[in-house]
Structures are given as C-alpha cells and as structure tokens.
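Q: A reviewer asked whether we had any structural model of the full assembly, not just the individual parts. We don't, so I'm hoping you can provide one. Inputs are below.
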Amino acid sequence: MKRLPFSAWHFVLAPLALLFALPLVWLLVSSVMSNAEINRFPPALWPHGINLGGYRYVLGNALFPRWFLNSFIVSAVAVTANLVLGSLGGYAFARIRFAGSKIVLGLMLATMVIPFQLTMIPTFLVMKHLGLIDTLGALIVPSLVTPLSVFLFRQFFVSLPRELEEAAWIDGCGRLRILISIVLPLARPALSTVAVLTFLATWNDLTWPLIAINSDSTYTLQLGLTTFQGQHHTQWAAVMAGNVITVLPVLLGFLLAQKAFIRSLASTGLKG
Amino acid sequence: MASVVGTFTVDPRSKAAKRRARGEGATGWAFVSPSVVIILGLSVVPVLWSLLLSFQVNDLVSPSEWVGLANYKALLKDPAFGSAVSHTLIYTVLYVPLSVVAGLAIAIALDRKIAFIGLYRTLVFVPFVVSAAAQGVLFSFVLDPEFGVANSVLHKLGLPAQGFFSDPGQALYLLVAISLWSGTGFCVIVYLAGLQGVSSELVEAARIDGAGRWGVLRHVTLPALTPVTIFLVLFQTINALQVFDLVFVTTKGGPLGSTTVIVYFIWEKAFKTFTAGYSAAAAYTLAVALLVVGVALQIYRRRVAAR
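A: Here is a predicted structure for the entire assembly that you could use as a starting point for your response.
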C-alpha cells in the first residue's frame, strides 16, 4: 500500500474521534477499578491495577449469566425467524403472483409507520391472554418477523435477474426448492442486513421487556442492567462490569462485521 | 425477454403450466401467511384496540367503561401532559438539527483518503450500536455528583461541582448531549454513503467555473444531498419524539418532572398508575403528531424531487 501524505485534517479528526471514544474507554477502565478508587473524593481518573472484583461480583452474585442467556435466546430466535419468515414472504411478494398480494404488501408496509407506543398496551393485553407475560415468549413472538425484514428481502429479490430461476422452474423445481437452493445462496447481502438489524433491535431493546417481564430470572440484559444499577448504587465497578458484559456482544459483532453493520444501517437511510 | 410480471414465461397452453399457475396462489399465500398473521395481527388489531381504549376507563384488569371523549378532554387540561409535550419539543428541537448538521460536517471531514480514516469513522460511529440502557447506566456513573468522573475533572480544573441529573435545570440538556454522542454517528454514515453519490463531474465542473470550497458545498454538494437530509430529519424527529429508554434509565422523568417526555408519560399512565385508557389517548395524540410531521416531510420531499 502506498503511504498517504500527512494531512492537517488529523488535528481535527483525531480529537473528534477521541471525544466519541472516550466514554466507552471510561466504561472499560472503570469496570476494572476497585471500589476504594471510585469511592474516594475526588475519584481516581486511572486505576492502579486491574481489579476484577466487579466482574467476579456480577458473574457470581448477580443473575447476569442468566440475563445474558435470556437475551441470547431472544435475539437468536428473532434473527433466525426473521431470516426464514422474511425471506419466504419477501420471495412470494417479489416473484409469485397471487390474489391480494399487492394489498397485503401495502398494508404490511403501512404498519411500519405505526409508533410502538400506540400498540404497546393492546400488545401487552394480547400477550396476557396468550399467557405469555413474564416469559421469554412475550419477547419473542412480537419480534418473529418485522415488515422491514420482509421489505428488505423483497427489494433484494426483485433486483435479482429472473433468468437464474427459470431453468430450475422449467425443470419442475418447486418454489421452496428454488428459494433455498438458487435464490438464498445469492442473497448474502440481504441476509446479513436483516440479521444485523434484527440483532441490534432485539438485543438493545428495553421498553418492551420492561413492560412484559416481571420476574428477575426472566430479565434480559438491558432490563437486568437497569435494575441492577438501581439496587447497587454504590458498587459502580460492578455496575460497569455488568455494563461491559451487556455492550460487548454488540461491540464485538460490530467490530468483526463492520462493513455489514454500516451497509445495513446506511441502506435503511438511502432506500427509506 | 418478454417475461410477464410475477410469473415465468412458460408456454401457457401446456396443461402442466396451467396446473402450476393455479397452485401458485396457494404457494404464495403459504409463504406470506406467517408474516401476515404476525405483523398485521400485532399492528392492525392493537391500533384499533388502542383507539377503543382511548374512549374508555381501563386499569388493565377489570372490565372497562365507556367514557367518550373524557380522556382527551382531561389530557388537554392536564398540566403534566402539557409539560411532557414541551420537554419533548425542547429535546427534539435541539437534538434533530444539531445531530443532522454535526453529522454532515463530520461526514464531510471524514470523506477523504488519509491515514487512520477507517479508525476515525469506526470511533465516531461505534456509540450508535450501544443500547440506550447501557448509555444511560454509563452516564449515570460519569455524571454522578459524588463518584462521577465529570465532577472529578471539574475539581481538577478548579471549577465548582455540578448537580447534573439531580439539577432540574440541567437534566434535559444532558439527555440531549448524550443522545448527540450516540446518535450523530448514524447521520455521519448515512451522509457518507450519500456523499459517494454526489457526481464528481459536477464538482469538477463547478471548480473549473471558479467555485471555491464553500461555493461547491453550497451549490453542488448540499442540493445533491437534499433527499438524504430530508430522510435524516424525518428519521431523527420520529426517534426524538419517541425518546424513552434513556430517560427511564437516567432520570425516571425527574428531577421534579423536568425530563418527563411524552412516551414516559404514556408508559407511566399505562403501567404504573394503571390508567390505560388515559394513556391510550396520549399515545393517539402523539401518533397524530408523528403522522402530521411525516406527511409534511413527504410532501416536501416530493416537491424537491419534482423540481
């Protein structure tokens, strides 16, 4: 790679980038501080050594491992279901002619503009009637498939050349077979976009778990962290250790698949 | 190729083709029905149900009672709702323009090929993927009046300690600042993607015609980015009007109600004081406001596109 010439822009961009990074650096640093360092005045700005007491407390005395598992289950089921149901629906809307398809698609897209506050009370009542309140099911059912997932798959499939599927169709392949063995292997960008958006939405959600869950053993990480902070107001190192555990999967996912994350999020903007 | 929309070009006279075309309808419905049931079932039904609720007194347990427009009338007279609306508007009026303008400025600064540019972009964007709950918990600590690093730094600089979230005059503005820290990155990446679409020939032509850096920005880049800007204003406004998680984690609407925003009000009425009908009326009021903003911006977008 050719070396780039030094630019004066570094004097603007480096401090700016640092400003955005600093709170997260502090999150990591304070999670390995001792309570003594935090609780004196003025509090220390840098730890003297790495103290894992916060992590030990959070993993041993609190329900964080359980909450992590709950969040993981909800996100994993939601991502899988959105990929399966979204691609099935998106494919049908893109390729199959059937009575009512345009009206149903239009209705589904229209629901994207409904704010969540408008539906949350009846959704709570529906989940209560189904006996799902205070179970992970209450968190999973509403996020099984979103109109955005169906729409993103449909847009992608419409852009694929039809000829790819025609040979298989003439050979007598069914639609499901064509979708699985011809279309989906080409749909990696759409699959990763839907996976990223669904994961971010379910992992980071607080509002709905707050409404639907009461028992602490059924909390998700976001709800658990929030409650934990309220109950351990003086154990900041432990709270920050819990916070790191809550944020880490998203941060790691983002750093490992940065291109997919950025493309997914930018695409909601440019096509929206 | 003369393909028909929605089906393949198979000889329509063959019997097999006809049979398959008939089967297509069933296949189509089989593919979409899980999505249709879940999405419409959990949106259309609740939207109508909410409308009914807003004309009722309901505590989420006992049978509800029809009260007509009483909830809406009470809402208009409720000073708590009035201040929730004004807090939400202050938050929105500060957050939306600041995040969009800062997003554009930072995107332009980041739109160049220099060393470390990938790292700079990553760092500016990374707070966006952090959940509002985690942001709230982190900043509750940073801004803790006793143990927080913010007062510690002020102390080192010889400045007086601040109350931060415990000060009714500061709390709402701190929420705006935290949202800017995490939300500006989204504007940056959308603008960065938009900037790749600005025709370099147009920029080149303007340069040759003697336009300076500002001239190019004002007369070429900004007009080309107008659709992106309208989208971002719409997206950020909708998010700002619905802010909840961050408020719940940091201030719970306090101190002295100074950060009670509309959605916090709605949540509190439904799930804390169990006045679900009243809450639904507030939710409908917010939804109508969102609809008006959305439609106005759509009309504006069409006009810009037609020009």
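A: Points you may want to mention in the reply: Chain A has one domain: 58-271. The mean pLDDT of chain A is 90.
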